[in-house]
Amino acid sequence: MTKIVVTDGYSYPGETFDLPKKVCEQYGFDFEILNCRNEEELAEQAKDADGLLVVYSDITESLLQKLPKCKVVVRFGVGVDTVDMDACSKHGVLVCNVPDYGVGEVASHAFSLILALERKVALYDRAIRSGRWDDSVGYPIKRLKGQILGFVGFGRIARQTAEYAKVFGFDIVAYDPFLPDTVFEENNVKRVNLDELYKISDVISIMVPCTEDTFHLLNTEAFNKMKDDVLIVNTARGPIISYDDLVDALKQDKIGAVGLDVIEGEPLKDTSMEIFSFENVVLTPHVGYKSNESFADLKTKTAEAACKVLSGEKPFNILNKAAIETAKAYK
Fold first, then answer.
1. What is the per-residue pLDDT across 198-216, written as a single tens digit (0 to 9) for each?
2. Catalytic positions, please?
3. Fewest beta carbons less than 10 Å away: which of 113, 125, 154, 247?
């Protein structure tokens, strides 16, 4: 019988997998939760699996060589940083993600970080808790209306965040080389190149996937092109911002404030790291996508994608579409 497994169920502590189990059973497929912590365990325990549902497990060339039955890999989430796409295509394994499960959640979290920086919410809270009732603590507060909010990447999450920002009077610009002009026109957003976005933006929101092209996209060179009081929010992937260059820019007062739901090297457990020494940094633990409803959607849609592929369907969220013709699932 066709079998689908969760590779690393322990990565979602306290969570059940009743929803993906129900989906698999509706398709007549077996379902199992594994707790594999390395490639050796995964290769052994998933050797009879047709589909892998992945939280954080690395899907590598060497692993796929040991899993000849595997036909589809689906990531619980949007990013596929841990999946070797070329290796999957080579082995006839289709890769899917779930790009539409938490759009509203990430957008609202991004804008919450923007407001927290703009209004110095966390900074005031820390000051009061330390015995300082002082409205002048930190950097100056500016009126929101008329500020320029620049989006690096203008996909569905960025577009939703832009709608929130417009209500508060922000002027919106965006950079995205992969979208047609009509997307910007339909959303009443000015299209700019990256250098111009850095130069004119009062607030910059990072909304791109982490790829070879976007790795350390925000580095010393980029920071030097920005306003010295710029506010930066990252709800995408940590390595898009160079941690070392960010710390240097903060030391040199080249950045007004930063809100990070993701950060290079996460999870952060060493509280002696320099990033914790800056009052103008707000951190959250990669939770932008979270709500009870979005998590239920995520688990359901992850299983649905795998089941559709293994049933001969071609869901919209296949990422390596060029591999469809040679995919093992359709032979």
1. 999 999 999 999 989 999 9
2. 237, 266, 286
3. 125
